[in-house]
Amino acid sequence: MLIQFAEEMAELWEGAYDSGSHSNGIYHQNLRMEPMYEAFLCPLTKQIMRDPVTLENGLTFEREAIEKWFKECRDSGRKPICPLTLKELNSTDLNPSIALRNTIEEWTQRNEAAQLDVARGSLTLSSSENDVLQALEYVIDICRKSRSNKHIVRNAELIPLIADVSKHSSRKVRCKALETLRIVAEEDDDNKEAIAAGDTIRTIVKFLPHEQYQEREQAVSLLYELSKSESLCEKIGGVSGAILILVGMSSSKSENLLIVEKAEKTLENLERCEKNVRQMAENGRLQPLLRLLLEGSHKTQLSMAAYLGELVLSNDVKVYVARSAGSTLVDVMKSGNKEAREDALKALNQISSYEISAKILIEAGILPPLVKDLFTVGPHQLPMRLKELAATVLVNIVSSGANFESIPLGPSNQTLVSEDIVHNLLHLISNTGPAIECKLLQVLVGLTSSSTSIKNIVAAIKSSGATISLIQFVEAPQREVRMAAIKLLHNIAPYMGQELADALRVTVGQLSSLVQVIAENNGISEEQAAAAGLLADLPERDSGLTHRLLEERAFDIVISKVVSIRQGETRGSRFVNPFLEGLVRILSRLTYLLDEPDIVSIVREHNLTALFTDLLQMSGLDKVQMVSAMALENLSQQSKHLTKVQVHPQPSFCLSIFPCLSKQPDTSGLCRVHGGLCSVKESFCLLEGRAVEKLVACLDHQNEKVVEASLAALCTLLDDGVNIQEGVMVLYEADGIKPILDVLLESRTEILRRRAVWAVERILRTEEIAYDISGDQNVGTALVEAFRHGDYTTRQTAEQALKHIDKLPNFSGIFTKKGG
């Protein structure tokens, strides 16, 4: 029984100690330069002893092994026995065998040195996969045996060789080399430095995006180990792409969880270097930078604020930063020294450039200190470069579209659109340099872009008498200043068009500058669109301004630009449409002064009737179609005055008595509607210009304004002074009767109903058409509605129309007077 127990215990014990060591042991044996003596081996473990001890019977074992043997004897309820003799022992005292231990250590050192030499020879790119793997396993084994062996590996200069074989053609070798370097580096700063001494870190980083996850895993694990050394953090971050790749790995949803965890921990270690924190911020990992901004030393906070101002941030990140650090940056801007305020302003400039983040900064209280910095003068005022920066931030804030009427700037409850504040802005614009002028003009552009605040700004401009000074900026040599001024004037023109027109008439140079801007041929710019829009918004019936524009040859330039755009010679600019709209509106000014012969000559010279007719087909540009139709209305109203009516000689006495003998006058070639010789160029005739069909097509437009203008133009064919009967027939032949009736039936606006009732009454004067329409109950109902609910003139007209279709008795007196 005793023998059986001893054999079972020995087998279990030997199995526990030999597991996984066989192949490596063979490699060690193959590398030994000196023979191994049997006395070096523990009888139990069959391994070289590190701490030999002797029993009372003189036999020697490894201390750990014999202690475990005795414990197992006790646990089984037996007295301690010798594993070899199986005889009971009187004592379990263990006597260190110092001499043997020293001998083994000396022998081990000699052999390990020899083994390292052999391993060194195998650690080459030309060695076989098996030789390199065995050498690497040996290095791992000796490092795990003792931390002091890591010093031996370093002194044996194996680290560069291991790093080199990480470039081996074998994937197994590459993975094992990275693993070996990690084990060599663990808890040994000197080895970490040795690994980083060459180009190894760059090589490791190249493995991070590798397609094989085993290599990625080993690379990021090694990099994590190296990042534990603070002195290496900057070097790791200095490798191009290292932080970018790590950030991507740490946030990956598809990566191995261990790799994600190691990447995250590596980044946390690298955060100890400010340069790395900046790189992380550049690559979307902002938390470290914001943490230093909020919690770092004063110097660090300023450094992070300054760097934040240099970053290019996505809109989502701007919102995140505004919420996380907006209040801190505003506080620094309010109370820091000039350097700190500059850094804070740079950061706020970056963050405020997105609408949502700008509104968050408004909630954080940015407006009061910002405006104060701009308006403060004297010894405490900011340097001009910082005022310019503050003005830039204010431009961003204003562009957010917030309701500035409800945001107080201080205890006086003044707001950014209060009269005094606007006066201060205008004063500052007139008494500062171009850079700040430009920004403050842009602030006013932003404020006047809001329908809620523009009236306040316009009132302040009027009360300050700043109109002339603002117009003078149109001649500014700096393009940005000039463009901001033009955009501002464009915004306020609908509210103070006459004041601007008066100023442009009497000042020298500004009108010419606007025309020159429109005439530029370098594509179509925002400035050109704004200049055209500004001139378009000025009162169209201002004869003086129109003649000034003629003097500047503005209309020649405008016509050339319109034709160029219409022919497709100018494309690809997002400002083409607003530019074209402005040009057409400028051109339409001429049609409001057709009582002046020189204007008529210009319209004839450029055949503007044909041009406006062509522009009716600009589908999608509602304003262009509307203004073109309005211009055609104005032109067509002059046709009856401009048509050449033939004058026939008085018949002789005989012919007057016998008219049958006279020759009837030749009416061929005469205009059916105007009764004379008409042409699109000379008399602006809609029939000759083939404009009727195009105007009829516009009656189906979704935009009521386009329909109103088109119907008004068509109504000129039914006006007094023309052949109404023929005008009706022209509309009939152009399939225009039904669209006009549809306008009446829909009555989308009061103007459309009034105009449609007028046109229908004229159409119903033709008996055949009246007879056909009388059976349409919908038309009758629409006329009755107009008769009941329209204004006085509409009701009168509707009454006449109802008589035409026998819906009212044909007697007068229903309306004897207004209000009757």
Write the layout of secondary structure elements.
Layout: H1 2-18, H2 22-31, E1 52-54, E2 60-62, H3 63-75, E3 95-96, H4 98-122, H5 129-145, H6 148-155, H7 159-165, H8 171-185, H9 189-196, H10 200-207, H11 213-227, H12 230-238, H13 242-250, H14 257-270, H15 274-282, H16 287-295, H17 298-310, H18 315-335, H19 338-351, H20 355-363, H21 367-375, H22 384-398, H23 419-430, H24 434-448, H25 454-464, H26 467-472, H27 479-506, H28 510-519, H29 526-537, H30 543-551, H31 554-566, H32 576-588, H33 597-605, H34 608-615, H35 622-642, H36 653-657, H37 692-698, H38 704-715, H39 724-733, H40 737-746, H41 750-763, H42 767-774, H43 777-789, H44 792-804
Antiparallel strand pairs: 1-2, 1-3
Task: Please explain how this structure is put together.
α5 packs across α6 (148-155), α8 (171-185) packs parallel to α11 (213-227) and α18 runs antiparallel to α19. The termini are far apart. This protein is 65% helix and 1% strand. By secondary structure, it is mostly helical. It has a 3-stranded antiparallel sheet with strand order 2-1-3. It has a domain at 38-100: Herpes Virus-1, CATH 3.30.40.
